[in-house]
Each structure stands twice: as structure tokens, then as C-alpha cells.
Amino acid sequence: HDVWLCVPQYLVKKDLVKDKTIKILEYGEYLGDLDKKIFENMRTFDRFWAGENPHVIYAMYRAGIEFGKIENIILSDKTFVDNIRNLKADLFVLDSVPFNMNMIVLPYMLDIP
After folding, report:
1. 52: which DSSP letter?
2. Are 26 and 12 in contact (CB under 8 A)?
3. Cα 57-60-63 angle, rounded to 5 deg
């Protein structure tokens, strides 16, 4: 079996996947640098320098909101979904951490539970 990994473009440019047997399905040029965008929208550093010490739960909640926005954009990307569909995968392995639970619907969108 071929192993494919979906990687946003800004991470592909960083060449983080060193195992050359893993095939990369690049997506999300329109997303830009997600790390930067998430930190800016969460205002983590602004709050820190303002002397605020947010509770961990609140920080996780804010991160969840930001990841939810991104998930909806990615799942709405018809080209990305079509590229995954064209792989004709037998199996999907998805993270199921709270920040990206919505991604679990992707195999069902492709009729590959």
C-alpha cells in the first residue's frame, strides 16, 4: 500500500517529512502560514505582554475555535476533497483530538468509512 500524508503547503515548504516513501498530498496554498494565523487570532502573545494570564482551559477553547474555522475551509475545498477521492484509498487514518474532530467526516464524504 502507498502511504499518503495530507500536508498544508506552508509545511511542505519546510520539508518536515523526511521519509521519502511517504507521498505528500499538498493542499491549502490559500491558507497561508497557519501557525502564524492561529497565534495572531488567539492573541496569545498580546495577552501575555499585557500581563494577562489566561487559564489553560480558555486557551484551549480559543484554539478550538480557530481550528474549527480552518477545518470548515479545508473540508469545503472541492479540489482537495477530489484529490483525496482520486487516491481511491482503502483506509483512512485520522487524528481524533478535539481540535480536529470535524475532519473525521472526510471518509464519509468520500463513501470510505
Report:
1. -
2. yes
3. 155
How far is 44 from 7, CA to CA, in rounded Å?
A: 25
Q: C-alpha dihedral over 46, 51, 53, 58, to 10 degrees?
A: -30
Q: What is the pLDDT of residues 46-94, one digit of tens each?
A: 777 777 776 667 777 777 787 788 888 888 999 999 999 998 888 776 6
Cβ 84 vs Cβ 25: under 8 Å: yes
* Cβ atoms of 92 and 107 closer than 8 Å: yes
**Domain chopping of the chain, boundaries:** 3-109
The mean pLDDT value of the chain amounts to: 79
pTM above the 0.85 mark?
no
> Cα-flanking dihedrals φ and ψ of residue 24, to 5°?
-105, 130
